[in-house]
Amino acid sequence: MIVHGANDPRVKQAESDQFVAALMKNHIPVTYIVFPDEGHGPRKPHNTLAMAGFIEEFLHKCLHGDVEPFHLGNLQTFILSILKYF
Prior knowledge:
Layout: E1 2-5, H1 13-25, E2 30-35, H2 45-63, E3 81-85
Pfam family, one: Peptidase_S9
GO molecular function: serine-type peptidase activity
Organism: Meloidogyne enterolobii (Root-knot nematode worm)
């Protein structure tokens, strides 16, 4: 799982894009989430809530533990892109 803020001043999104492309090219499962209104790590409440849901879902898929259903609902409008490659 890779989470990136489009306004990150430390790590350019192109670097994350390149990393994700390499994973996909090598058939390695990846979930890639980009928040358009965040910098180096989600800080806004709606983004931290969405990220928590994505992390729980990701861990459930990897570790097969319990998970609470998570629906983006109106949070979808805040997320630039979600790529899931499994």
